[in-house]
Amino acid sequence: MSYNLSPEKMVSTLLEADKLKRENKVLHSIKFKYGGKPVIYQKKDFEIKYGDTDSLYLTYPDSCYKQCNLVYNGGKGAISKLKYWTEMIKITMGAMEKLRNEVNGFFKLKTRSDYLKMAYKEVLFSVVFTGKKKYFGIKHEDAVNLSLKNPFIRGINTVKQGKSQLFKTIGEQIISEVRDINNERSLHKIVKDVLRDAIINPNQWSFKQFIETNA
């Protein structure tokens, strides 16, 4: 799940907060009600997978998918993997919408205006984070969309200009195999398999595919 905060400048570390306090700057901590008690997001068991200037990707606690896990039972249960993924995404979307509403309610209460808001954007599943501002996945906004053909990609080098067609093709193949709902391999194993195939089956490549361009 991704959301944006505006204005952009937000304090994200305790070290930064302590520095601003020493400078006599006014700070506001974000807390909201859960089970009748004011708690921060960690006590809801959300985990931050990735964050930058104004966005966060959070994961919902595994315990919230307990019923889905029981019914799916590792592929031996009463529902298919497609149904299993669909239900997990729906649960996540509902949870993130609720979190957004709670946080925005807190902002409005404290600021007495609608200026500062947290905007829920999308659920990414399945998703892979490879580095800072480098990730890809299947994007779900208003509804579950596991049949989406084009992946949601940010910062991955294979889609940048100036790369050879060989580089792009291998990258696209890796992304495609990772997104396959029937995939059981790790990302590391997929990368090794794709690169091995690129080497042992050289006839699939032409000379032009090795040329880097500026276009």
TrEMBL record:
Domain of life: Eukaryota
Annotated protein name in UniProt: DNA polymerase family B-domain-containing protein
Coiled-coil positions: none
Provenance organism: Rhizophagus clarus
PROSITE patterns for this protein: DNA_POLYMERASE_B
InterPro entries: DNA-dir_DNA_pol_B_CS, DNA/RNA_pol_sf, DNA_pol_palm_dom_sf
Molecular function via GO: nucleic acid binding; nucleotide binding
